[in-house]
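In this section we walk through a basic example: taking a raw amino acid sequence and producing a predicted 3D structure, encoded as C-alpha cells. The instruction is simple. Fold the sequence below.
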Amino acid sequence: MLPLLIIDQALQRQRGHLLPWIPVCFGLGIGCFFALTQDPGFVTYALMGLAMVLVLPQTQHKDARGLVAWAVLFLGLGFATAALRTHSVAAPVLSFRYYGPVEGRIIGIDQSSSGRIRLTLDRVRLARTSFQKTPERVRVSVSSDQALPSIGATVATTAHLMPPQGPSEPGGFDFRRLAWFSELGAVGYTRKPVLVLQPAQSALAIQRFRARLSGMIQHRIAGETGGVAAAIIAGDRVGVSQETLRVLRGSNLAHLLAISGLHMGLLSGFVFSFIRVVLCLWPAVALRCNVKKIAACAALMAAVAYLAISGGNVATERAFIMVSVLLVAVLLDRRAFSLRAVAVAATLVLLRRPETLLSPGFQMSFAATTALVAVFGAIRDHQLGLGPAWLRPVLTVVVSSAVAGLATAPYGAAHFNTLAHFGLLANVLAVPIIGLVVVPSAVLALCLAPLGVEEVGFLFS
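The resulting C-alpha cell sequence is shown next.
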C-alpha cells in the first residue's frame, strides 16, 4: 500500500531516533481527551481499549505497520491516562453562591493578579452544607492590612464563595479546569477578620519551613529586593509588587521568578561544578573515585532539596524531572543533553500530570528546551565554533536567549496576546547575573543559615 510505504520510508530514515515521538503520540491522546466537550462514556472507552488490543500484535513488525501500531498504542495510553487522572482528582464543587462562616486549615498563601492575598484552605467546613457537598479545598482572598496566620493554622472567617468560573472567551484560559485538577471546589473573598482557631501543628512541616525561609530572606534583605529573592529561593511571590511583575512580564523576564528549568538547572549545575572542582583538587579522591558521578549525586540531592523548599508546584516538578533525567544520564554514562532526555522528561511529566499539556508553562518550557538541545546539538555535531574563547560565553548566552525566545514566542502570543520586544537584550543582561551571582550567593546563604551567618551570602545578592 502506497500510504504505508511512504510512512515506512519516512520513519525508517529516523530509525534509532524514534524515542522523541513517544511523548508526541502520548500527548495527542491526552489532547484528544481534553478536546471532548463532555466526559466520554463506556462505549468510547470500550472502543479505545478494543483498538489497542487489535493493534498490539502489530507492534512486533519492524516496518511501518509496527510503528503505526506503537503510535496508536501510545495515543490510547495518553487518552486513558488523562481519563484516569481526571477521575482520580474528582472532588465536590460548590454548586451555588455561598455567604456565611468558613472554617479550614491553611495549606497555601499566595497573591492574586490584583495584588490581594489569597488563603487556600483544606479540611473545609461550611454552614448548612453537608460533608458530601463540601469542597475539598477553597481559596479566599483577604485584605492585606491584617496579620496573616501561619501555614497549618486552622482559621475561621465569614466569606463569599462561588464555584470556579470557566473561560471568559472561547479558547481562553479555563480556570475551572485548573481548579478541578487542584481539587479547588470554591473561590471567594472576605472583608471580615480571619480568626485563628488552632495554631499550626506538626503537619505541613515543609510548607511551614518555606514560609519561615521566605520571612527570613525578606527580613535580611529589605524592600522589593527581598521579595524577589524570596520568590527565586522559596517560590513565595507575596513580597513582589504588581508593578515589578508587570515590568518583568513586559521585558520577558517573568520566568526568572518562576522556579523552573532555569533555576533548577543553574542550581544543580553550580553544585555539580563546585563539587567536581573541589574533589579534583584532592588527588587522593580524584585518582580513585569517579568524581563526575559523585558530583552528579550531590547535584541530584541539591535538586531534591530545592524541589522541597520551593513548594513543588507543576513548573518546579517539570524542571526537577528534566534535571533528574540529565543527572541520571551522567550516572549511566549516557549523553545527557539529547532529545531523548527531553522526551523522557516530557513523558514522565505527562504521566504525572497529563493536564499540564494544555498549560503555557509546559508548552513554553519544552519548546524552549527542545529548540536549545536541537540547536546546540547541531553546533556540536557539525563542530561549529562560537567565536574566540574570550567571546564564547557571551555568544552562547545570546544564541540560547534568541533560540528560546523564538521557540516560545508563538505560545506567548497565543496564551498572553503579547510579544516581548526587548526580551533578547533583557535576558542577555539578566541571565548571566542570575547564574554567576544570584544562584551561588543563594546556595552560600542556605549553607550558612544553620550557623546564623547567612548574611554573608545575601551580601552578594
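Looking at the output, two observations stand out. The beta strands are 98-111, 117-126, 137-142, 154-162, 184-189, 195-198. The chain has a mean pLDDT of 81. In the next section we compare this with other chains.
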